[in-house]
Write a structure and sequence with these properties.
mainly alpha; membrane; transmembrane helix; UPF0716 protein FxsA; two-stranded antiparallel sheet; transmembrane
Length: about 180
């Protein structure tokens, strides 16, 4: 119910702003501003989206947690959605989200909040490293090394015991036998 009310208030404010700006600069001026903002926004999203993906790949390559990079990419996507929605307030919000320092600050806060919420619910987080590396304890794409001894893995930021196991698909047990 709150979401519906919030959307209704947003639409009323957006329409009011569009009417007021349209009365001030005219219909063609308003249309020009909306088209120009969409073009500039599309260019900015393309540019910032590439930068965000590069940062995400770099964090994955280094084996570092990428919560902030993922949140950053989500804010770029949100800016894209806001630019698709016709209106001046949504365009203004999208352009603010496309400013890298603003987006990074929001992304850091969102990532920290997500990590705190996740660790409060399920305890300490587990990071899987070394998948696909050559040999059981050889160097892998993320730089994990067996420097902590047998059964221990040291990646610099993650130190923990590696527990070997097997994934069992329970759905196989539920299938009728033929």
């Amino acid at each position: 119910m709150r979401l519906l009310l919030a959307v209704a208030v947003y639409l009323a404010v957006e329409i009011t702003v569009l009417v007021l700006v349209g009365q001030t600069i005219g219909f063609w001026g308003l249309l020009g501003v909306l088209v120009l903002s969409a073009v500039v926004g599309a260019w900015a999203i393309k540019r910032e989206g590439r930068r965000s993906m590069t940062a995400l790949r770099e964090a994955a390559r280094r084996g570092q947690p990428a919560e902030a990079e993922v949140a950053d990419g989500m804010y770029v996507a949100l800016a894209g959605v806001l630019l698709v929605v016709p209106g001046l307030l949504s365009t203004l919000a999208a352009l603010v989200l496309l400013v890298p320092p603003v987006r990074r600050a929001l992304a850091r806060r969102a990532a920290a909040r997500a990590v705190r919420a996740g660790s409060a619910r399920v305890g300490p987080s587990v990071t899987v490293v070394g998948a696909g590396g050559p040999g059981a304890w050889g160097a892998d794409p993320w730089g994990a090394r067996d420097t902590a001894g047998p059964g221990r893995l040291d990646t610099g930021s993650f130190r923990g015991t590696v527990i070997e196991g097997e994934v069992v698909d329970r759905r196989d047990d539920d299938r009728p036998s033929t």
